[in-house]
Amino acid sequence: MHPPEPERAAELRARFAEEARAERPDLSVLCLLIGAVADGALDERGMDEAQIALDRLAGELPHRPGGPADWAEALATRLGGREGFRGSGPDYELLDSSLLHRVLRRRTGLPILLSVVWLEVARRAGGQVYGVALPGHFVVGFGRPPGPGVAEAGEQVLADPFDGGRVLTRGEAGLLVAGATGEPLDPSMLAPADPRDLVLRILNNIRAWAAAHPEHADVALWALELSLLLPSHPANLRYERARLLVRRGDFLTGAREMDAYAEVVEAVDEEAAAKVRREARAARALLN
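That's the Tetratricopeptide repeat protein sequence above. Prediction below.
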């Protein structure tokens, strides 16, 4: 896998920023733009083919299956069963598992990317579906999410695309949360995930993969740069990018970004700001 040419990469970043700031961002478009930044072989035709593949899968679902449980069963039968979409342990070791176009070809990936497939197929078919960002394991919800005025049992059905779309009971969802955090399931964890938060989580996974593969610092850099284009993102990503630039030998740019970050944090933590400024001076000293 090779990155796109600089001009193409700049165009993709601009399109990603524009889509991320749309009133209703298109999740599949954002994910495919991430894939195009990662994989220079993914051109416009390839992105169109991925969208067509999602359309085809949606067209093969039963027409309006019924209630939330029926939708979950229909997706599991088609995607998890006939199409063979599901995950496995080795998927966590591969960058491909975080790229939508590769997941569509390989029929496997991380829980969050398989959830994107479920979400996009169900959405195209008219289902009431949304992502549910459980700590450590992303799943999909069908029906009305919990909230004010939604108290009846059975109105929300959870499915785990990583396990072929298996329907989860609340107890099983609680076990997933407990395994990841040691804490019980909080009802707020079952709320629909914003598409931009979902995309940030995908980029976080890519950064985690790159951290485990130091020879791919370029991947960490573009994942950080895309994260910073999202309307809402953790402020410390700017600091992380600055440190990565220094490690890659771009001492001056990294030092400038450290100083800019120090200005942001100084109002709430003067000691942290001073530490960052010392790092900036040390980075500039490497130029001598």
